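Changelog excerpt

This revision adds worked examples to the README so contributors can see how folded entries look when concatenated. The first example is reproduced verbatim below.
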Amino acid sequence: MTGATAYKRWWMFALASAFFFFITASTFSSLGVVLPYMIEEFSWTWSQAGTGFSLLALLVGLAGTLPAWTIRRFGIKATYVIGSVTMGCGFVLISTGSWLYQYWLGASLLGLGYALCATVPGIHLINDWLPDRRSFAIGLYMTLGGLGAVAGPPIVTIIVTHTDSWRVHWWSMAAAVLALTVLAFAFINNRSSENDEADAANTPGEEKTSDKVFKTKTDWRYRDALRTPQYYVIVAALTLTLFCTLTMNSWAFTHLGMLGISTALATLALSADGAVNAMSRALGGIIATRIDPKWLLVTALIGEMIGMVALSVADNPAALVIFAVGEGFGFGMCFLATALLLLNYFGEKDNPEILGTMNFMTTIAMLGPIVAGYIGDKAGGFSMAFQLNAALMLIVIIAVAVMKPPRQQQQD
């Protein structure tokens, strides 16, 4: 491989990771921290405010297959540019809004832009430019994206504290996404056939995996992958994990305040959750060639269940630590393991469609903040909502544990 190509492929990786870091920090990880300030100013109910968070998640899911279509039709560059411009419009709408429906529309645009800039185009770039380091690169990519969850809460706190305005936060996010749009337009592109031919003799083969890790020998067709029960078990695992995480991101800050936890300690706990999230993705990327991602997923779901139980009673530092470690590890490892399982089970060729359809199917997870907001209004708190999430998680843990890899005869 030439030096220029080696530099360019890691530059593509860096741009994809920068997008994932930013959209994580500026959407799900920020909105739950900004919402109390917006609720105080506009006197919204928890259910009304939570609907905006749910619309954000809804559009991420509904647009799950959109990036696969834009990549095939317009290319990877256009996908990132369209997504980042859409997010910029969402940030402007929220920052200038004074009425509920404008906030809902802005949150919806953030969800649409998120889908176009997140894992589908990111993993497509990695498969295209780094096929020989796929598990490591995907793990690192998701780690860097996960660090956005660490950065999001303190960024909001710092900006609001120093400017005394939640609107400045959203204007800052609009400026940042504009800069990323320029970088995407200038540099992002697919690996050319000329590069493939020039580097064929020097490019390493696919990464070596342990005999304990199942990996399909042929690429499955999209329609055949969707006919396997394994696909829907993987989708269910990610869906329920997102249900838990979206509920946590939207209401944990408020919930901890109701339990008597200070703003500073609550922010620290959420940032620690994001840090563990990021570290678990890095760990998963390193060991996924030696331990089957199925078992990484089982441990992730157990961690998520423990984290939800701890959060429901997190009125002391010990429970906060268990919550941050359990939920952070659970979401981070689940996010990575489900993506790797789809690649290992069904191959690379139709992965944008296979992954995008999974993202679409997880749309139902957007009900998490709405259901929790309803429970919070009725019960006067969110503990019951988090405990319900933990109970549902046990069912999915059992389904994943007994799952077997799909066999080629199923495709035939």
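The second example, added in the same revision:
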Amino acid sequence: MKTFLICTVLSLFSLNANSQSVTSTAIVEVDRLDTPSVPLPISEIDKAQLWGLSPQEWERHNLLMLGIRGRLSSEKISPIEVLGIHAQSEAERERYAQMWAQLMLEDAERVLKFQRAYDQVIAELTKGIPLIDPKRLQNINRNNGLKLSSDDRILFFATLDCPACSVVYEQISKLQNEVKSIDIYFVNVEGADQQAIRNWAQEVQISPSEVQLGKVSLNLDNGTLSELAPNILTVPYLMLFRKGKAQKFPLELVP
């Protein structure tokens, strides 16, 4: 199995002279200042309005993404987050923080409403019959059969922009003392995104000592998932590596 370890220690976290007169130069400067900026394409204006931003704010966001922010952050980072991180005053930072918090709250409400509707439809379709029979899980339930070994390794495949991946890692981290290591493989992530990986690790509270001791490793997938599980196209995905062989680690076993 290919392993591409990308870190063993997590970081804690013209003026040109010419023959023109002073008068002519001044006229050129005035003309340049009075010339209106080129308007944004309609599609760009639409994007700005979608996020509740002005065209000027959207232009600043685009410019920032050409610099270090575009280098360190995922391309899916929101423009509000970009502007907030690079706020030019405390008041501006607070305004973007409020905008982002409000959007997140509104989205959470939409997700919850959809989940409730989904649960209701599932209940109507199944007529109260549970989708999972607990009796059939007895042979694989961690508390009723699965015994993890100190030589086992949990392989966790994730992406940087996967909220569910963070949740699943939080759960499997509880198994850290029962296995040799938890090896995290980032799918569709380039080597240049190492800082983004460090940021992700900090967000899920992976400590430098865990990495130093080999309890957690951060790796680029580089085809590992397709090699071990060719038919798996989505993450998060878990596997158990035991005695030189990898097998599926069902999410049902996550505490």
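Reviewer comment on example two: The CA atoms of residues 141 and 252 lie 7 Å apart. DSSP finds ten helices and six strands in the chain.
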